[in-house]
Amino acid sequence: MDFASIRIITRDVDRLTRFYELVTGVAAVRPAPVFAELRTAAGTLAIAEPATVAMLGEAAPRPAENASVIVEFSVDDVDAEFARLRDGLDDVVLEPTTMPWGNRSALFRDPDGNLVNLFSRPAGPAGAQ
User: In this predicted structure, what is the pLDDT of residue 123?
Assistant: First the structure.
């Protein structure tokens, strides 16, 4: 089994797609107006309107209500990426910080309020994957 994607359900696919294109530097693939994919070597971030999960009825995900998942991107230089994005971020949760376990992280919210973490692992054996 291979990990394929995480899908964020939103009421504004265009806005959220533009945001994640800015964050990742990846151009989205848009197979339909209600759906976008940002494909990376590690996996895909899908962005879709509620219509794509309407058949689930009351069990369907609700847009802009996430309080348990963090969308994470591994980057080479957290400080440089954060500086590049800073002017486009409305809700910074944590400026670039070295975590107690050695990762360098910056956290912010996307336009729907989902938490996003840019992180890099420390160099050397402690940061080896």
Answer: 82
Q: How many CA atoms lie within 13 A of 104 on its CB side?
A: 13
Domain that holds residue 115: 66-129
Give the pLDDT confidence of 82-128 residue by residue, as tens digits. 999 999 999 999 999 999 999 999 999 999 999 999 999 988 665 55
Element (H, E) at 29: strand 29-32
Question: Is the domain of 122 the same as that of 85?
Answer: yes
Question: Could you tell me the two tokens for 113?
Answer: 């309020």
Element (H, E) at 83: helix 78-85
5 neighbors 20 (Cβ within 8 angstroms):
no
| Residue 73 shares a structural domain with residue 50 | no
Cα separations (Å) of 18 from 3, 34, 128, 129? 24, 14, 32, 31
**Whole-structure pTM value:** 0.91
